[in-house]
Prior knowledge:
The complex is a heterodimer. Chain A is of the alpha/beta class. Chain A is built from eleven helices and 14 strands. Chain A has two domains: about 1-220, Rossmann fold, CATH 3.40.50; about 225-295, 2-Layer Sandwich (Alpha-Beta Plaits), CATH 3.30.70. Chain A has helices at about 40-45, 70-75, 90-100, 110-120, 135-145, 165-180, 190-195, 215-220, 235-245, 275-285, 300-325, and strands at about 1-10, 15-25, 30-35, 55-60, 65, 75-80, 155, 185-190, 200-205, 210-215, 225-235, 250-260, 260-270, 290-295. In chain A, strand 4 and strand 5 form a beta hairpin. Residues about 315-325 of chain A have low confidence and may be disordered. Chain B has one domain. Helix content of chain B is about 85%, strand content about 0%. Chain B contains 13 helices and no strands. Chain B is globular and about 75 Å long. The mean pLDDT of chain B is about 90. The interface of A and B includes residues 42 and 89 of A.
Amino acid sequence: xxxxxxLTKYYGSLAAIRDVNFNVSAGEIVGxxxxxxxxxxxxxxxxxxxxPATSGSVRISGIDVGEDSMAVRRSIGYLPENVPLYNWxxxxxxxxFVTRAKGVASSDRVKEIDRxxxxxxxxxxxxxxxxxxxxxxxxxxxxxxxxxxxxPIIILDEPTIGLDPKQIxxxxxxxxxxxxxxxxxxxxxxxxxxxxxxxxxxIINKGVIVAEDTPENLISGSGxxxxxxxxxxxxxxxxxxxxxxINGVSTVKTxxxxxxxxxxxTVESEWGKDIRPxxxxxxxxxxxxxxDLRSIDVxxxxxxxxxxxxxxxxxxxxxxxxxxxxx
Amino acid sequence: xxGLLAIFKKEMANFFVSPIAYTVIGCFLxxxxxxxxxxxxxxxxxxxxxxxxxxxxxxINLTDVVIHPLVQNMSxxxxxxxxxxxxxxxxxxxxxxxxxLLLTYxxxxxGIVFGKFMAAVVILLIMIGCTLSFAFIMLTLGxxxxxxxxxxxxxxxxxxxxxIAMxxxxxxMTENQIVAAAISFxxxxxxxxxxxxxxxxxxxxxxxxxxxxxxERLDSFLKGVITLSxxxxxxxxxxxxxxxxxRSIETQRWRG
Lengths: 327, 256
């Protein structure tokens, strides 16, 4: 559905993105993750024909963005980051303008506006001035304009930025709802959101793709271990020796040292192995009190921070080397 | 075509939802009305004197005493007011970021530029159209040269359209509306006053300035002379700035 090959964009001498390659197949929901200034918006602007790339190619449904931009624009619904709307218009008038601009046949306009309004839930604010809408409703209207004309591809740049937790959940559910038969690319730096909505994640940093996989694979492939936090009433040294002896345990660290007879330890084991039952049994067998035992999930956030910081350390080292060479 | 119409309707709505159209049209009509009243009063004063002096009587007519100065004054009012119509056309979209959405809709850049231009031209036509009431009043006062009247109005519309096209272009280059208005006004004024220099610049430069000057071109229309070169001048002026606006939008895409 979307093929991006060797995409590079320079602003003056500054590269916003360098040699970006990825594919998105029909029906996928892909999350675009990256810190601010990583090149997410630039990539989206190229995909939506707002800005041309310096080099590389983008094909959408087999059509090159540079060759037939009109056909590409017809097949894409786009919501830019700051949700630019005409504040002086009423919701209904704005949607009428969008249907006209997107070339919806005049006989279908009313039907299309009603359909989209009910999908995003803005039926009750049709006559309101956009200026007076709450942030959440503005976001919904932004989604509505992207959905008008029923484009097969939806591109959303930070669709939940600046919303409160309740609104974030609503927008997330909306996206899940309409995404059933659409290809969606959304960018975000709110990671739980991406892991909940997207089937695949592309992590971009400093204009380069650093990872691309499903959220689950990214977490499991990150080289991280399963972690368990255990609180017990026992002597520190003895209990650490006991736990280290359990099959699969790699490290045991003290999180809070012995205080009032209580000790909290962090136990790491190889990925995917649940050591909790055996851990509990051995503690109880020793007749120690087991006060708390919980598994600590490795989140996409950890993976993201790892990838992004690794990358910056690399760059830093290279720069340092170059500095030294120059010196 | 659909896109062009959508942009046109949106711009028209903006003109009338905001106080812009009412203010600009209102100001124009008040000032134009004032000049019309002043000119007609002058005419009645001269007519009284002419009753005693038949040699003046033959030279008094509505065309020279009322229409000619009125249209000249209207062209100067337009020079001041048209930048206020055009200043926000692109600047506002750039400032609020709506241009990003607009440029990703399946509307070509020409449709966007021309839709906005046409909306401002319609406001111009409404302004000038309202002053046609002056013609009906004059018909009750006496006879005047309809041909001169029509050619003067045609000149006014052509000149107004040129200034609008220039304003659209300048608005497309900045996101600051005040800057857009100031530059549009300054540039229009330069095209207006440039002919004043033709008397002391050299012969070649003087001839070029004479050709470029808007006031010289408008003058033939006011005399009732419609020449191909004058019409071409305004049409070319308009087309050039619309083309430049089109290119300006394109470069904005490159700057992304």
